[in-house]
Amino acid sequence: MSTGSKTSVFGSEPTKAESTQRPIQKKDWTVTSHAFQGLLDWLDEGKDSGGERYLEMRQRLVSYFDRKNCSTPDDLADETLNRVARRLEEEGTIESECPEKYCYIVARFVFLEYLRSAPRHNVPLDDSRKQSAPDYAAEIESDEAKLLKERMLQCLDHCTKKLDPARRETIMRYYKGKERVKIENRRALAQELGITVNALSIRACRIRNKLESCVRQCLNTK
Questions:
Q1: Element (H or E) spanning 166, and its range?
Q2: CB 50 within 8 A of CB 199
Q3: How many degrees, rounded to 5, is the angle at CA 111 between CA 104 and CA 62?
Q4: 3-class DSSP assignment, residue 7
Q5: How far is CA 174 from the centre of its chain?
Q6: Beta bridge partners of 13
Q7: What is the DSSP string of 33-70?
């Protein structure tokens, strides 16, 4: 989620010890069906699990980020697996570590990046007087964030409408509800489709990847 000098998700590095440093930011890269299948095959290690290993690894990563009190553990787990998939697509395989260990190595650096980008709430006592004045920069950033969120919702609506009716209904029902209700909804949906819950999760992941790619393109053209 190699040895020798090569370019990877962690940058160009000459040794294995440096292979998890300086992550390359490739924000335009999206998970293709081929890359996703490559990730599934790599996690299975030669034994077809029908997506079980992927779901297990993703849940472990979600738990990892949740234990560290991250606000978006699901998104961070997906980002980790996306980076692993990207390196697999670039290099064909990852032989330096076993799949589970390598995913946790990537997750550690995703977590460090999360810490660097997370907002800081602790204000030094010396700065308390400054904080009492209107923070116009924060207000501007807040307005920009609202506009961006509005644009993202518009793009999401646009991209969702581009899906064929069956996929649109699947993805909307898959994320409907919270906690226990969501779990029961997914079980009912899987039963209606005549597939297992695990197969439904993989199908929803592929639809979500397609939506995310469409939303990025939409945002870049607006």
A1: helix 165-174
A2: yes
A3: 60
A4: strand
A5: 17
A6: 6
A7: HHHHHHHHHHHHTTS--TTHHHHHHHHHHHHHHHHTT-
**Which residue matches tokens 């395989």?**
93
Specify the pLDDT at position 94. Answer: 81
Which tokens hold the place of 111?
């977590």
* pTM as predicted: 0.48
Residue 11 has φ and ψ, to the nearest 5°, of 105, -175
C-beta of residue 181 within 8 angstroms of C-beta of residue 192: no
pLDDT in tens, 156-184: 888 989 999 999 999 998 988 887 888 89
Nearest residue to 82 via CA among 103, 101, 97, 96: 103
Would you put residue 3 in left (φ > 0), alpha (ψ -120 to 50) or beta? beta
**Terminal alpha carbon distance of the chain:** 32
Residue with tokens 């999401």: 156
Q: Amino acid identity, residue 207?
A: I
Q: Are 201 and 51 in contact (CB under 8 A)?
A: yes
